[in-house]
Structures are given as C-alpha cells and as structure tokens.
Design goal:
Layout: H1 2-23, E1 27-35, E2 38-46, H2 49-70, H3 78-84, E3 91-92, H4 95-110, H5 120-126, H6 138-144, E4 153-157, E5 160-163, H7 176-190, E6 196-200, E7 203-207, E8 216-221, E9 230-236, E10 239-245, E11 250-253, E12 256-259, E13 274-281, H8 284-297, H9 299-307, E14 313-318, E15 322-325, E16 333-335, E17 341-342
Parallel strand pairs: 15-17
Antiparallel strand pairs: 1-2, 2-6, 3-5, 4-5, 6-7, 7-10, 8-9, 9-16, 10-13, 11-12, 13-14, 14-15
Helix pairs in contact: 2-7, 4-8, 7-8, 8-9
The chain binds flavin-adenine dinucleotide (FAD) and magnesium ion.
C-alpha cells in the first residue's frame, strides 16, 4: 500500500512537471546596441524574461571585451599594440586574440592569402568607411603591398605576437565579428538558452529552430537594394550565415564604386564579378573568414574551396544577378526575387 502511494505521488509530480512545462510558453526577450562599428541585436526565447535580459547584457559585455582587444581603433587593444611594435618587439596578447589570430592565419593559408590578416596597411591607406576614404595613388598602393605578407606574423612563441617588418599592420575586421557571435552563442548555451537569433551587423547565428520541425528562415540581402531587402531565404537550424558584400562599406568616385574587401594581391578592392559571398557553417568565425576569403577568390576558386570543406556551404552572387550554390545548400535555399537566377 505504501509503495502504491509513493508511486501515485510520483506520477502526480511527473504530471505536474509536464503540465507546468506545457502551460508556460517561452517568451522572446530582445535587446540591441551599437558596437564593432555596427548595429547588434540579440533575440532569445526563455521562461524568465528578467534573467533573459541579464544574459543578453552579459553577451554585450563579452562583445565589448572582444572589441577592446581586437579593434584597430582602440589605442591599447592587443591589435594596436602588435601594430605599434611592428618590426620592434613581440607583444603578449590575451588568449582570445591569440585564438582569433591563429584562426586568421589558418584561413590565410587555406585561401592562399586571399583572406589576409596582415592587410592592415592597405585598409588604412584606403580608409574606406572613414573620413579619410580616398583612391590612393598607384605608387602608394604598390608601396603598401610590401607590408601585407602574413608569413611575417610570428606566433611561434606562445601568446607572444611579433610582426617581423616595421610598417606592417594586422586587421581582424574580416573575422572578429564571427568570433564574437560564437562567444555570444556560448554564453547563451551556458545559461540554458536553446533558441536564439544573434545578429551582429549582418553576421547571423541561429540557435535551435523556429518551432519544432520548422527551421529558421534567414533572408539573404539583395546586393542591389538597401539593407533589409532580401533576394532569397535559406532555411536553417543551429547554423550561422555570414555575408560579405560590396554594398556594406564603400564610396564612389567618378562613377566607380570602391568597397572595403581588398584583394591582397592587387591592393585594390576585389573585382572578379562576385559582389556578394554568403557562407553557411556551424561556427561564425569560420563563416566570417571564409565569406571575406571567398569574395576575394571569386567564383571558381571560392566554390572549389567550399566544396572541399565539410559542413560549409555558400551562396555567391555576381554582378549579373546570377546565383551560384554549393551542393549541400540547394534544397534549403529559395530565391524570392525573380531578378535573380540560380545558375546550375
Ligand atoms: P567582411 O568581409 O567580413 O570584412 C571586411 C573587413 O575585413 C574590411 O573592412 C577590412 O577591415 C578587412 N579586410 C579587407 N580585405 C581583407 C582581406 N582580403 N582579408 C582579410 N581582411 C580583410 N567600424 C567602425 O566604423 N568603427 C569602429 O570603431 C569599428 N570597430 C571595430 C572593431 C572590431 C573588433 C571589429 C571586428 C570591427 C570593427 N568595425 C568598426 C567594423 C570593421 O571596420 C569592418 O568594417 C567590419 O568588420 C567589416 O565586416 P563585414 O562583415 O562588413 O565584412
Ligand atoms: Mg568576413
């Protein structure tokens, strides 16, 4: 009899848990801010809205720490210290800067230098997106090209980084936003959040799915239209989507557009027909570096690189509105604007 009562009590308890679990639906908590030179938004689904708000603040704090270490615009960041000491001394950096720079060098090798963290001198010379933006003289570009050899970033000595030539500058603008998105996802996971949309200036990471068995739909920016106008949607669960485009940061002079993704071989903005390169992957740091690298590599080399990587897909758009898809994304991507055509 005693045993029976205990069993009944247990059953009631389980039913209560299931019942309360069902009755309270997760609610969306959202917040946004401006950091990393861009607009950041985090949406999470949770039962505890107050705690949810705190968790998002924790994420913003982590992004702020990353910015303080990896920004070229902050005087005492790890990156600035490395640059100031170029050709002189090695600089001990925080472990996250070490991690991002190590990854950046991996992608420099994987893209044959198309993605190049030693691009800083050229980025500063062009100044795209700053008050100093201008078309440099060809002489100045040729001169700057002598300072972009990523093989001269010396990381052999633990967390000590040294640039071997004076005048060299590193720039993590093409990869650090991806790292920041991964770190946000990590904080959310650690706090039990299973469903979220992280958007760091177009660097998107989705956690979980929209509903059970219903993936998130992420819009792909129409490269010819203002921000927020989509040309297609991709359906995803637990993935990141990162786009590099010629419409993000640019200026025009004499009818010509100069955008911020530079070809480290020519010293000029990459110009190979591709105007938008979207990468879908598990980790945002990988997708960010690859979106920039594939943009520079162009269609053939870029597609070959992505097809050779496990769990990484791409959507490339050229200046004729032609869309090229890697093999694993074809059934998850739909064009929503018939100006665009998928080329098989
Ligand atoms: P992506 O294609 O991912 O990256 C392009 C950027 O990468 C370029 O802007 C350049 O910085 C760099 N790059 C260019 N060519 C190459 C190449 N071949 N290989 C590797 N890298 C390349 N913006 C502001 O306006 N003010 C700020 O204070 C500011 N602070 C920032 C701090 C941090 C830590 C980060 C990560 C970014 C910051 N930004 C800031 C934005 C930054 O300047 C870039 O514009 C931005 O990171 C570009 O991201 P994207 O996704 O548009 O393009
Ligand atoms: Mg990038």
């Amino acid at each position: 009899m005693k045993r029976y009562k205990a069993k009944a009590a247990m059953l009631i308890l389980i039913l209560m848990i299931i019942f309360t679990g069902c009755s309270k639906k997760d609610e969306m908590v959202t917040d946004s801010t401006y950091m990393l030179g861009t607009y950041l938004q985090i949406n999470i689904w949770t039962q505890d809205a107050e705690k949810g708000k705190e968790i998002i603040q924790q994420c913003f704090q982590r992004i702020s720490d990353i910015e303080k270490r990896m920004s070229v615009n902050i005087e005492d960041s790890d990156v600035s210290k490395i640059n100031i000491n170029a050709g002189k001394a090695s600089v001990q950096v925080e472990s996250d800067t070490d991690y991002v720079l190590t990854k950046a060098l991996e992608y420099a090798r994987a893209t044959d230098g198309a993605f190049n963290p030693a691009i800083g001198k050229l980025v500063a010379l062009w100044g795209i997106g700053t008050e100093k933006e201008n078309v440099p003289s060809d002489n100045a570009i040729q001169e700057a090209l002598q300072y972009v050899d990523y093989h001269k970033i010396d990381m052999k000595d633990g967390r000590n980084v040294r640039l071997e030539a004076e005048g060299m500058r590193i720039d993590l603008g093409g990869i650090a936003k991806g790292y920041a998105a991964d770190e946000v996802a990590k904080i959310l996971s650690e706090n039990g959040i299973k469903k979220a949309i992280i958007n760091l200036g177009g660097n998107v990471l989705v956690m979980g799915s929209k509903e059970e068995n219903t993936p998130w739909k992420v819009g792909i920016q129409n490269p010819f239209e203002p921000t927020g106008t989509y040309m297609g949607v991709v359906e995803l669960t637990d993935k990141t989507v990162v786009t590099s485009g010629n419409y993000e940061r640019y200026f025009e002079k004499n009818g010509k557009r100069y955008h911020h993704i530079l070809d480290p071989k020519s010293g000029y903005p990459a110009e190979n027909g591709i105007i938008s390169s979207t990468i879908i992957a598990d980790k945002s740091i990988d997708a960010d570096a690859l979106s920039t690298g594939v943009y520079v590599l162009g269609l053939e080399k870029g597609m070959a690189l992505i097809e050779g990587l496990q769990g990484v897909e791409c959507i490339l758009i050229n200046d004729k509105s032609e869309v090229f898809l890697s093999s694993g994304i074809k059934d998850r991507f739909k064009i929503t604007n018939d100006q665009f055509k998928v080329v098989e």
